[in-house]
Amino acid sequence: MKRKKKGAFRWIFRYSRKQMLRIVLIALVGIVSALSCIVLAVFSRKVIDIATGRLKGSVFVYCILLLVVIGVQAVLNILESNLTVRAGCKIEIDMKQGVFGAILKKQTSQTASYHSGDFLNRLTSDVEVVVGGCVVSLPQSLSLAVKLVVGFVVLLLMNAKFTCFLAIVGAVAFLFSFVLRNRYKKLHREIQQKDGKARSFMQECLENISIIKSFVKEKTILANLLRLQNDTYQVRLKRNAAANIANTGALTLFSGGYYLALVFGALQIADGKISYGMLTEFLLVFNQVIDPFKSMSGILLQFFSVTASAERLMEIENLCDEPEPKSKQADAEKLYREMNCIRIDRISFQYGTEQVFKNASGVIKKNTLTAIVGCSGVGKSTLLKLMLGLVEADSGEIRIEMADKNRRINTETRRLFSYVPQGNMILSGTIKENITFFRDGIEEKTLRAACWAACVSDFTNNLSEGLNTVIGERGMGLSEGQNQRIAVARALLSDSPVLLFDEATSALDNETEKKLLRNLKTFKNKTCIFVSHRNSTVEDCDAVLRIENGKIREEIWNGQEWIMFSAVAGNISKQYASRDSERR
What we know:
Rossmann fold; 18 helices; alpha/beta; 14% strand
C-alpha cells in the first residue's frame, strides 16, 4: 500500500510539475491571506483596547489599517482564483492528453475489457478529483499549516497551558480522519466504479434511443438506471457516514474548545488579568488555529480521494502497450510496389478458450478484390484485425511476400492498410471533414475522385451545402448507406493501397453496390478485401477466402460458380462451394 501511494504521488507530480510554480504561488497567496487574518485579530484588539482606554492611540488609524488588510485579502482572493483556474485547466489538459493518449497505444485485448463509459468516467470525474487535489487541497494544506504554526506561537505567548490543551484536541481530531483512511479510499473507489457503470448505461441508451422507443421500453430503461443510481447512492451514504465521523468529531471537539476558551477568558477578565481586547484577540486567533484543525479532516479525506482516483488513472496507463515498432512505420507506397501478395501462413488464434483459427493458411493477391466469407462469428473480422496488427496470432504469421524478401505484418505495416469498420465511425461535423479525417491540404481533384469512386457524389450533389453539409453524431441526418459510402471515400483518400471493408456495403442497394465495386476496380494499384455475407458483393470479387472450422479455404471462379481451390495440392477440387445466403 505504501509503495502504491508513493507511485500515486510520483504520477501526480509527473502531470503537475509544469504548473508547480503556479501551485507554489497559490500556496504563497494562501499563506499571506492566512497571516492577514492573524493581523486582523491583532488590529481588532488594538481598536477595542484603545476604545476602552486600556491603550493609547488612534482608533481611526487602526480602522484604516483594518480596511487596508481587508482590501489586500480581496486582491489576494482574486489572484488566487486566477492562478487556480490557470493551473487547474493546464493540468487537466495534460492529464487527459496523457491518459487518453495511453489508451490509444494499448493492446486491443487489454482495452476490450473496459467499457467506453468507464474510460470517460475516469477521464472526467477522476481527473477532476486529482486536479482539485493539486490546485486546491495542496496549496490549502500549506496555507493552513502556516496559519496553524503562527497562530500557535501567538497563543503560546498569550497562554501556554491552554494552547497545549488545544494541541491535544487537534491531535485527537487528526486521529479520527487517519483511522478512517483505508475505508474512505475504498468507498471512493467503489463510488467511481458504480458511477462509471451508470454513465456507461446512459451512454449506450442514448446511442440506441430509437431501439428503446421502438420496443416501448422507456420505463424499463428508467427502472434499470434507477437501480444503478441507487447502488451509487447507497455507497455515497456510507462514504458520507465515514466523513461525518471524522468531521463531526472534530467539530464537536473544537466547538467545545472555543466555548471553553470563552469561559476561561471571561474568568480572566473578572480577575482583571486580561482586557476585553485581549480576549477578542485570543478568540480570533483561536478561531484561526482551530480552522486548520477543522479543515484538516476534510483535507485528509480529499487527499484519500485524490490518491484513489490517481490509482484508477494509473491502472489504465499500466495496461500493456502494443509492441513498440523496431523501426519507423513502413513506407506504404514502396512496400506495396514491391509486394506480390499477402500470405496467411498457418496462423492459430483464440479468444480465451474459443479457438478461432487453427493452422489456417491462405493468399490474397495484389491488385484484386477478395471476399472473406463464412458463418457469423467464424472469425472474418478477426482476420482483418490480425492484418492491422490490432491483435497478434498465437502462432504462425501473416506476411507481405516480395520478390527478394518477406515482411511480417505488425504495427509497423499498419499504414499499408485502410480500414472501414462495421460501425463506420462517422463523427459530428461536415461530410468533408469525415472524408478527409480533418486533414488539411488535400487537393480538390483527389477529394472528388474519392467521392466519385465511393458514390458519395450521387447524394451530395443534391445537398444545398454539398460536402460542407453538417451531420450529427453517428451520421445523424444521413441514411446508413450514405454513411457507409462516406467511410469508403475516407478509406480511398487515405492513400493506403490495401483497403479492408468489414460489411462496409451491407446497407447499399444492389445497383449502388455494383457501381461502387466497378469504380473500385478502376483503381489499378489497390487491393480490396471485403468481409461480406452478400452474394452481390462476392460475385464481383476476383477471389474468395472462406473461413470454416478454424481453416481458410480458397475459392476461385470457374466462369459459372465458385469452386474450392487447394493451395496445398495445387489443383482444383471437384467439390463445389455452397452459395446460400446464410453462409455469405
